Amino acid sequence: MESDRGSARAEPAEIRVRDMRFELGAHVPSHFCPSHPEFSHAATAFMAALPQLEPYFIHNIREASSAIEDSLLKAQIALFVSQEARHAQQHRALNELLAPRYPELPRLEREIKARLDRSRAHHSLGFRMAYTAGYEAITYQLVGFMMHEKDTWLADADPNVFALLCWHGAEEVEHKSVAFDAFQAVHGGYAMRVLGLLAALVMTVKDIRRMVRHMLEVDGTWSDRACRRRLQRVRLAFARGLLPKLLGYLRPGYHPAHYPDPPVMIGWLARHAAGEDLRQMTASSLGNSAQHGVQR
Fold it and tell me: Which terminus has fewer CB within 10 Å in the chain: N or C?
């Protein structure tokens, strides 16, 4: 087995399980960012796969945990599982809200499930954990991008969906190292790590493109030149915000703990710990710095 033991584990962050529920009813608009419908659909499409992806990740990391002796990592995995299960539950509620409006979304979601079921049956634990760790790296960088650009893309976001994004993003920051550490424990190969990231990236882009096209077709704007120009701007923003940072994942000594967390997510964690009700939020109320936060 090719090993990358240069990626030593860092002191783990505290992980807390928060049972938060959001008001995701008929009042939530189809474009949760009204000023940027194409960005809104891209973010929605990313979230739409999560009710299938999260159980897949949970299955993989539970299997990995059974082969891991490190008691601290096993405890971190248990908390990771609890957080991810709650994420899937809330994103499923959002999918159920959108399904009558965009009737092909449930079929596309079922296709993702079928692909993941095949992976469970045919792929090795090493590959499945590499995919899980790679996807977690993508999600972590996506959180950083969206929080850094929130005043551009999310300024008028629905406060319920934005609060859901912030909760999920803050917990991704909190458990950002767990899947990577679990992969290192059960496999640790550099080539497999890179393969997992690339597979996760390719499939994520493919899933998002299909869902976004369907939603824009239902909106009646897919063929509009102005829509295509705006969509291209969204694609470039995601590429510029994500791809350069994901290159760090290719370094042999990479570890998630080496990277600074988005200050506004640190602030969110501190505000929740102080008892603040964060079930509705706006980009402006989230703040622009770690003014509510603590150093990690």
Answer: N
Question: What pLDDT is attached to residue 13?
Answer: 66
Q: Which two tokens stand for residue 90?
A: 């809330």
Assess contact for 185 and 178: CB atoms under 8 A.
no
Determine the pLDDT at residue 243. Answer: 94
Distance CA 38, CA 123 (A): 34
pLDDT of residue 290: 39
The sign one gets for the Cα dihedral 282, 288, 290, 291 is negative
Instruction: Tell me the per-residue pLDDT of 248-287, one tens digit each, with 9 for 90 and over.
Output: 999 999 999 999 999 999 999 999 999 999 999 999 999 8
pLDDT at 80 over 80: yes
Mean pLDDT score, 103-111: 97
Give the Cα-Cα-Cα angle 136, 138, 143 (nearest 5 degrees): 95
Look up residue 104 and give its amino acid.
Answer: E
Contacts of 168 (CB under 8 A, 6+ apart): 87, 90, 91
Question: Angle at CA 267, nearest 5°, toward 265 and 271?
Answer: 120
pLDDT on residue 139:
97
- Indicate whether this model's pTM tops 0.90: yes
- ∠ Cα 260 49 265 (to 5°): 25
Q: For residue range 25-44, what is the model confidence (pLDDT) as tens digits?
A: 999 999 999 999 999 999 99
Closest by CA position to 85, among listed 59, 104, 103: 59
The SS3 assignment for 15 reads coil
Q: Alpha helix locations (H) across the chain? A: 37-48, 50-65, 71-98, 105-122, 125-148, 150-153, 159-174, 178-186, 190-219, 225-246, 263-273, 283-286
Distance of CA 151 to the CA centre of its chain: 19
Q: Which domains does the chain have, with CATH numbers?
A: 37-258 (1.10.620)
